[in-house]
Amino acid sequence: MTGPGSVAPDPASAIEELRARIAYHNERYFVLDAPEIPDAEYDALLRSLRALEAEHPELVSPGTPTGVVGARPSGQFAPVVHRVPMMSLDNAFTPAELGSWADRLAKLVSGDTAFECELKIDGLAVSLTYERGRLVRAATRGDGRIGEDVTANVATIAAIPGRLAAMVGEPPELIEVRGEVFMPVSAFAELNERQRELGGRPFVNPRNSAAGSLRQKDPSVTAGRALSFWAYQVGELVPSARSHAAKASGGDVEPVDSAATQEETLAWLERAGLPVNPERRVVTGLDQVLAFCRQAEQRRHQLDYDIDGVVIKVDDFALQRRLGSTSRAPRWAMAYKFPPEERTTLLHDIQVSIGRTGKATPFAVLEPVFVGGSTVSLATLHNEDQVRLKDVRPGDTVVVRKAGDVIPEVVGPVVPHSSGPRRRRRWRFPTRCPSCSAPLLRLPGESDTFCTNLDCPVQRVQRIAHFASRPAMDIEGLGEQRVALFVERGLLLDVADLFAFTAETFTGLAGFQSRSIDNLLGAIDSARHRPLHRLLTGLGIRHLGEVGSRALASALGDLEAIMAADEERLASIEGVGPVIGSSVTRWFASEVNRSVIDRLVSAGLDTVEAGHDADGPGGSVAPTLAGMSVVVSGTLQGYTREEAEAAVTSRGGRSPGSVSRRTDALVVGDAPGASKVQKAEELEVPIIDEAAFVALLATGTLPGRPVGTRPTVHRSGHAGR
Ligand code: IVH
Predict the structure, then answer these.
(1) Beta 374-380 vs 146-148: how paired, if at all?
(2) What pLDDT, on the 0 to 100 scale, is given for residue 406?
(3) Which of 68, 82, 87, 89 to mutate to test the pocket of ligand 1 (most atoms within 8 A of CB)?
């Protein structure tokens, strides 16, 4: 990723570049639980994009990240459609920003507005569906519309009741409770202690370990992780028929749907046995809101769970309805984010590390300091300009903070008083690579510096380790340390060498028993059959992350087509754009890279994307669906959602997210959205299954008769609200 200073000058390219960068960081944060930049930096990217889009509304496209809540689900768990979308919150970073929100509200509503102030729990949003009082499903937020089914894992969380407490009257027919799953700070400390004893890498913070623990394939792992939960909202709600009738006749019931305020809802959830955070207050006026925020900030480290701010919600539901929402967030709520904590420490040295693309990143070597919940001894300084701008020099006392409470950052030096000690000279960026001594190069107009030697051993190790990593070829047992060993012994020059490994390769290598050799050879062998998008991710092409690789692979279907496509064709693919497009064509134009690809192909690697129908003139797909609109819902066996949609669009059709009069067919997989099915039935849109979809892709015509009228809807027949 390039620094903010390198954003392209023309607005279309700048927008494209910002979108690519935001998509990349979304994936790191939401899908991989491994953020690379602090929240504040991410927010700044989003703000720049919003500002540019506001200036150039003609350049706003439907999928822009400014209108999207989070990332798409990873595909590891079954998808769950949120019938009431799970929205995000707008952020205020200063009391003044909170004040302007309050002013905007005051113009829209008269009188003193009551606000519920709640703590903003730093965990991950989860939706729990209770049918007649029983927990039947738990899902992550995903992109706000489709999350992942994590029921088996959530069922292991002791704080979450499997049944709602018996109350007066009947439980609702269906109630969807939303809240935050988190890891208590004490449990996090214990987990890391255990992790250290086992020699594993410690987790970054409680939020990431909660996210990682919830998305385990094996629920018994989740069970061992001491997760907890605070409920804060009701999503979908279908009251019980009897409580409805009893309410009408003035009977003695306690229905949640009569709650008229946020506080009444939270009190109901508490009585139903759900954990609701007691640290909340209904207040009026900005002064009281700010007082709550100040107190929360002072007390934050006395709590056994991490919070990153305060959520302020208009308490009255009638007012909430009047205020409504944007596509991303409600207007009736605001998150007030705490400023990051700061500490001072000694800057011992500035060193440079080399990444897989050769990028030379300066970093600060610090006297260890405890800040924002953990000890920091290293912090990135990003690039040469940042070091110059901050004017930090070895020997300085510097201010360090955890930006976004995750990534340590050096804010700047505490400049000594004129009578104090003299500072050392300004730090100079090294002219040679610390690993291979090749000259370092910074191109005019760019903020990053690179080691241009492709044979640089550190780059080689990083490139190969990236190829083997989980989001790429997922070669289990091939981490950075082993790669470094193979590179050092001259056994591995590039990724294609891996596929020539045999048992003999390991002769004389310490630390490999015959079982671990077999396992590694087996893992390398299975990597031959990964889908194309993983191979593309693994090649480490600049700007091309997992999301862009998926888009490329599903649009063009095989590696040959991607290599043959020109920059313009690549740029025209939704989710790719000109920045990635030109980077990809440049990568494949290199003879060295082409020869690696030739050797990978000769080694028998699959180079097609599963589910993509690549038959058609010239490798591109025949436009069998020109002018047709096909909506896809539920899980298909042979396609991910993106692949199915791409299969339609690459044939000249459209694949919108909702059913309308103009829809030609609704394709239903497993557990489709009930509202889409209902709408299709109402509008008499043909509902087809996966086999008919495959036939439709091939022939462009629908089967004579729709396949059944109602597929299995895994929702016990509840009508949507
Ligand atoms: S209400 C439409 N209340 O913050 C409003 N969210 O940045 C939905 N969060 O996605 C959210 N504590 O994961 C709400 N007391 C609280 C919260 C809270 C933490 C999280 C939640 C949400 C995110 C938005």
Answers:
(1) unpaired
(2) 66
(3) 89
